[in-house]
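User: Small ask, check this?
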Amino acid sequence: MSDDKIIDLLKNDPKKGMEQIINEYTGLLYSVCRKYLSPGTFCDADIEDCVSDTFCEAYEGINSFDRTRCSIKSWLCVIAKRRATDTLRAYYKRINTSPIDDTVILQSDAFDTEEDLIERSERQRLVCAIKQLDKTDRQIIVRKFFLCQPSKQIAAEMALTVRNVDTRTSRAIKKLQKIMGE
């Protein structure tokens, strides 16, 4: 269905218009949101909430949509990207860290047993070892193993190739093994 028809349908029969948009663009918006909200950190429900929020914002802002500037598809993708970015920022604010901050590794300060003390000590050793890596390798390791971001996402956000990210990851792991003596 053309953009003009969808907009007319939204204005004349909002329920049918939204049904049409939802049926046509849910899959696309889901993949846009999933690109920013990595599955290791966010669950499907978080991504679905982001898509739902996108549709709500689109419905509320349909009167501000300018057909001459972009298509509905592009407009919805921009809204979805903005919603996903907002969700990501809220998450990092909630855990009180930035995406590349080494302290994300040491999120839990509470320990009760001897095993917890040993685990905490090992995590601190790992943090010290990671801090010995160069800045780029450190960011890749933290993003990949502690924030569970896929290589593709890391590459896009750090302006690297996926192959470069994977190579640097492999080399950084070898350096960490050497530093930690294992």
